[in-house]
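To: structure subgroup
Subject: Chain for Friday's discussion

All,

I'm putting the inputs and outputs inline so they're searchable in the archive.
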Amino acid sequence: MLSSMNIKNKLIIIQLLTAVVAIMLCGLFFGLSYFNELKDNEIKNLYFSSRVTGELTNVHLDFLNQGLNVEDSQKEINKILVNFSTQPEVISATVFDAKGKEIASYAKKGENYYNNYNQTDSSNDLWHDVDGNYYNVYNNIFFNEEYEGRLNIRYKSRADQILQDIFKISAIVLFIGFIVAFGLSTILQKSISEPILKLVSSMRQVSESKNYDIRVEQSGSDEIAELSSGFNEMLSQIKLRDDEVQTARNSLEQRVQERTKELNEKARALEISNKELEQFAYIASHDLQEPLRMIGSFAQLIARRYKGKINTEINDYIDFIVEGVSRMQNLIEDLLLFSRVNTRKTNFQQADFKNIVEKCKSNLRYAIETNEAQITYAAMPSLVIDELKILQLFQNLVSNAIKFRSDVPPHIHIAAEEQENYWLFAVKDNGIGIEKEYGKKVFMIFQRLHKNTYPGTGIGLSICKRIVELHRGKIWFESEVGQGTTFFFTIHKNIHPALLEETAKTTAY
């Protein structure tokens, strides 16, 4: 409720509550102090009156207890008790002899006297108890150190009535104080709330209009005036910064437009280059391979027709020609495959890596069975990828792991681990391993580490690197010679397919 009030009303409420609480606490403190003091004084007065009355009646009680001058002694004691009529708070007074027999009594008009002699004795000669608003005072009377009797006085306390009067007066004072505090707070809050309200109004205008030329009117030299001055200075700084930001923004927009134009021109040039590369791929797949097939065919025809008619050296030359043609065809086919990673249209969509690994195992089934290879994999994620390219990535890595096997059957394990922005994949084998100095060379095109031992063109890992980069990832390996190799690569997650398409479009050959 207070949070929705303006500062003016909050100040008034705070001042009023402070005044009211202060008056109540002061009234309560002084009232209780006076109340306790009054009760103590009443007890002291009662004790004093009881002692005086005891001293006045002890002789007469001594006569009564001895049976001497009984009637006169009773009359004198009654006269002494009648003196309590001057104390309107005394309800009754009763004198008992040494045997507990009532000798004389006094009762205020309209009141019954208190004649309870059997009240529990105290260890003192003078004591009292409290009965509601009444005090009962008991005084053992002695004469010449002999017990002569007891005086009982019943007294109605004025303390409770006085306490009620104090509360009434406090309520009146509280009401008057509330009125006075309200008037004073109304006057005082103007000097506090009005400057703050002006400051708030100026802040609201600045927020709504974004006009940093607005200034707060200052009056006085107190903290609020300092706050207004600081606010005006802040507006001046914001105005200066805003002008600088606007200038920088205009300059940046111009530079962005120029850069965008430049990038568009480069993108168009790159698109033209990709089309030319596609045309080259078409030429390479048909026009370049056709002469090679012709050379290979005629070389094989010569070898069959003139088998046994020519010497061994010529046969070797023919074999070299056939082998060279076959290698050249493989190189061209792999080069076409490498170029298609970028030139072929990408198809990014949600795909399950488990299905991709299963397809990889199915496509490499012959090599797996022939080499008695075992392929296992852990839980696989589902990501937005080009499924065919990722399948090609796994096939290249798994087929390399089978090709470069050791003496024991290949064991290949595929794992995936989620990281902050990427998924990290690992393809681990127990093959012959790779020397550390070949860390970068293995991903270069046409780089072969075992030219005379294992078949291939040395382009498989280059294709893997291009596919991973197309998915905004990285690829590397860790290996120990004779123990096996683990290839790691990352695939970016939670990326929009349109951005991946743009990456594919702008990747340089």
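Points worth raising on Friday:
The mean pLDDT is 76.
The longest strand covers residues 146-156.

D.
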